[in-house]
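Dear Dr. H.,

I hope your travels went smoothly. While you were away I took the liberty of generating a structure for the chain from your last submission, since the lab meeting agenda had it listed for discussion. I wanted you to have the full record in hand beforehand rather than looking at slides cold. The sequence, exactly as received, is reproduced here:
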Amino acid sequence: MVEQTEETLPDLTGLSLLLLDDDPGIVRSLDRVLRGLGADVTGVCSLREARLALQDCAPDAILADLQLKDGSGLDLLPDFLGHSPDGAFYLITGHGSVDNAVQALRQGARNYFEKPVEPLALARYLSRDLAHKRDEDELATALKPYMLYSDPSMNAALSDLPRFATSSEPVLIHGETGTGKELVARALHGLGPRADGPFVAVNCGAIPETMLEAELFGYEKGAFTGASRQHRGRFEQAHQGTLFLDEIGEMHPTAQVSLLRVLEEHSVQRIGSERDTAVDVRVVAASHRPLEDRVDAGLFRQDLLFRLNVLLIQLPPLRQRPGDIELLAAHFLATSLRDMNWDGAVPTLTEAALERLAGYDWPGNVRELRNLMARLAVRLPQSVHTVSGKLIEALLPITARTQRQEGIFIPRGSTLAEAEWLLIDATLQDNDFNRAKAARALGIGERTLRRKLNEKSGTGL
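The corresponding predicted structure, in token form, is as follows:
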């Protein structure tokens, strides 16, 4: 006889839900079960109450009755997606309203449930469907001491970081200048078993070619003119910790040979010494350009690339992270004002100011945004309460502003994937980076658009 075991109850811990149904009994029933499984639940019985609740909270998901006494639950969908473009919207319908529910799916609703809704079955569905949201929230929380973000493209780019942090294999970080490669390296160090060890950063492009090997591997006293004392190189300084080699693609070929030897033998030989010194170092390398291109140009060793490119993280540029621009701008402005001993509340960015920021191409990425907010902080008078679009416009470089055009130009020789991305990017700009609107304009589902954006950030097209 086979012993029967109870099915594990779903876990909704960390999920925020808004319930809307004009039947208080249904709201109470669902609220009791979902809250008992860990969800943070707000239950309301009218469209008006739901809209007021949205002003005070940003739920991960909404479950709304299609037919209400003061309207339709579907009327809440534009408000919700406006606040949370990646939120999940579900409808609760009566048997005779299924056709309307199917139409709602085409407008951006995630799914629908027919009455009567069995609370535990609903909870199991939500647990499966929203599991990615909980994972993303946990990832963002873990990385909060190192970097600030909310855009889904960053969640996709950094999803493997916690697992990479526990490994001792080299990590290669690709990303344009200013995207935060060193912050990612520090997160890999801080979240891993070497967190108590040293974190040593070296910019390979900033050290003269003649000094790079001496800096990395060290030297003995008298090894060359000017070597008045023994020097422990960066590898020895990073022993039992992490060595971050920024702009690894700029390293001279001679130093590349020595680096490959260290990675394979886990020991260094100081200049002027005849003995090896064992080092236990986790190497994280970064480049703002694809190292494959450097290999093709004969400027980077292919065997070194193979040794470094074990675990890869591809960071998206800021222009592909529209959801982060407002968050980062407000953070950098507050930080800059605090450093200036600002007396009073931090001014808010107006809608016009946010439109100017969203419309700019950000060739310098997050670093450029931080610098712009620092310049803004210096110019703000003490009595100001808001930041206007004209002030932001005045601070942006005129020659680098994004110019919106009536059409898009697809260069001859472009691949189908490149042409598709040009269309997606232009449509996002024309719809103020609202994914729901852009998806409708493109004639695809929002989930499909989100997948294409995630694929884009992962391939680096």
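Two observations you may find useful: The chain has four domains: 16-129, 156-314, 318-400, 416-459. Residues 1-6, 399-406, 457-461 have pLDDT under 50 and may be disordered.

With kind regards,
E. W.
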